[in-house]
Write a structure and sequence with these properties.
The structure holds two protein chains of two kinds. By secondary structure, chain A is α/β, with parallel strands linked by helices. Chain A is built from ten helices and seven strands. Chain B has a two-stranded antiparallel sheet with strand order 1-2. The longest helix of chain B is centred in the middle third of the chain and has 32 residues. Classes of the chains: A alpha/beta, B mainly alpha.
Chain lengths: 244, 622
Amino acid sequence: MTELIKTPRAGETLPVTAGKRTNPLANVFDELVRFAQSRSLFMLHYCTGCGAIELPPAMTSRFDMERLGIQPMVSPRQADILLVTGYVSVKTLKRVILTYEQMGSPKYVIGICSCTVNGGMYWQSYATAKKLNDYMPVDIYIAGCMPRPEAVIAGLRELMENIRQGKADSWKDYYRHYDHYLGHQQRLFGETWQTPTDVISEARHYGLFGPDTLGTHTALLEQHQKPLEALEMKVDIPELTARR
Amino acid sequence: MTSLDHLLLVSALTLALMLLFGRTRIAGRLAVALYGVQFLLLMQTGALLGEPVASSLTVSVLDLPMHWRYDALSWFFAMITIGAGFFCAWYAAGVWQERYREQGHSPRLFHVALAANVLTMLILLGSGDLLSLFIGWELVSWASFLLMAVGGGPAGRAALRYLVYAFSGGMAILAGLMLIYTQTGSLEYTRVLTLFGELSDARVWTLLLLIGGGFAVKMGLLPFHLWQAAAYAETPGPGSSFLGAISARMGLYALILLLVAMVGIGRLTAMEVPFTFLSARDLIAWIAALTVIIPTYIALQQHDARYLLAWHGIGQGGYMLLGLMVGNAVGSAGGLFHVFTYGITQAALLMAVFAVVYRTGTADLNKLGGLVARMPLTFLVLLFGIISLAGLPPMAGFVSKWMVYRSLVAEGMPLLFVAAVVGTLGTILSVYKLIHNIFLGQLRIEHEQVREAPLSMLLPMLGLSTLIFLVGLMPGPALSWVAAVQTSLGLPPVPYTLGGIEDPRGGLDMLWLVGILMAGFGVGALIFFGLGGKSKRVHQLDNYAGGHFLTADVRYQYSDNFYAGLMHLIGPWYRGAFLWLEKALTATVAFISAVTNGLYRYAQPALFVLATAVALLALTTA
């Protein structure tokens, strides 16, 4: 699980955790894939607070995010980066988590503004989630109230560099320590909290199921969970099925 | 007895048997078998490649002999007609017929109407002179009226509207024939051909407007298109498929006879439209282009799947005439070939839509969605159909539309080309709306238990889809028919190969094209599965709606006002100018009839009749 101290700020580097494969060919291939991934990032900006106002200058001609290969995207299924740009109220946080879980892996979260780091000027508010990384793993925090576009660009470049080096893999943390994150979510939203995404089966799907994926909180989830089965495609021709 | 006699007799026999046994359960299967026999008999006439086959039946009216014969053009249209009858009867033969009976309709009437349509169309296609053409024309009009009206209710109203159009068109044709008769004293094609060579431009214009206008009514050419969509859409299932596939093409057949065989493209090009820089050919080509664009964009606005397709039927007719008006080998072949490719496409599409109607009870595009999970094979049929209708590879519609486009570019008609492409854009947009609103997106709770279409309806649909793909993959055999038709019409034949056409200025080989397309999919699949790609199905409520949590009672498939952005741009163009024109005409006729009515009925009728009689006597004696 990511703790705030371990989350890098712009300019810092994280200790390398990604294991290198022994086969040199596979290694080259991984490098290539990571390079390609770092140069083509689609960003879903969840503009919750004042930080959003710094994005238009960062995206438009003056700072031009697109020269780095970063573009806005309208839906989470196709997005790589979830950008949370300010304080998250309890109500908003539900939506942020829903959106995060709907994103396809690998996915990265960037918290912009002090509010996502520690609640910022809303620290005393009863309705605000203080630390974003209690609820989902955050790759990069860009602190400031608000950070200037230069800082936003610097943060994004940091993320790109981390992706290229294979260090930005905190999305795996969400699957490996799902119980931890779910616990924080349940603390805020109550025991019956459930999103449509079945994170545990996704963890199995990605091969990221670990000893900390399940725990007391997931047990609670299972008690309240209403199953959401995927719609099955049926070829049900009456004459043929009746004959069987 | 010639082979043509056999064909017409079996067709008449089909009608008689449907009248006798239409009530029974086997009527549908009997009809299918009989249409199959008709198809085989048509194949045996050999009218396509050999000499025209004459019928031994000749009738004389007022010293005017009428006779019937089949040449390559008749054979081509008759082949599509009987084929459409065969598939539509197959579709109707099983459970559809039973359901139709349970709903309180008469399957017998339906089968009779279908058989009458096929018979009258075969008679029309065999016409050997202008008189038999006119009689066949009227027979077809009344037979289609019968098929349109069997549904009752809105179908009946639409059919009556059609009748007014068909009647006016028929009268215009009759007036044109009378003009020809006064000039030549005969209605034989050979005499008429020489007559058209001798007539002055002004007289040819008159005849074109009268006869051509009458024929254009059936084809739904602008501005006579208003009747067609409702009349075809409201007809019960397979009947609608049949009408959509071939019925309006009878107008095209007659127009080909008039414009290509009698007047000739060369004469049309030489005839100037007074006070303009356009020739008659340009004028007709532009009418065809507008027929492509306007109905297609009206189709974009429809909320009913049947109406959407019926409006497309009008638009696609424009492509056929456009291709023919180009007049070169590839263009006219594209126009003729589109009759065939469009026929199989439209039949399959309407069958798929009516299969959905059969299962869900509605064709309203705002009340459907997500049916791909329950009716995957019907989805596949519709998918093949819309790819073909939009003119995209690898389906049949691509080949014919490509030929029309190519000829427009190659013959230096860039503006018409742009018009054709604009029409295709509208087609692509509206067929996407069709497949999205029916099959993609959210499955409604009330449709959870929907099952796949019954086998008796599914098989003809799948058969037509296979045909659409095969003709797209190997258009050669079908193009050989088209080439024979072109030869018989005196047009240069298209240089066809198995995979498409061969031309030093750029040919088409669908075998390669489809191969490369499939290889592209193959490479994609190889990359995905070879690199261990796994897919995962998600629940349909696990969907993004701006961060909202979706529940079963919240609908996230927005199908109403589908192209809101586009409609914002082009919406003001939908002003119903033609509807306004139609209403103005109706009001004028109603006014005149009211005035006449008032004159002879209320103001001294006896005096009125006396005055008329005196006037008539004075006229005739003087």
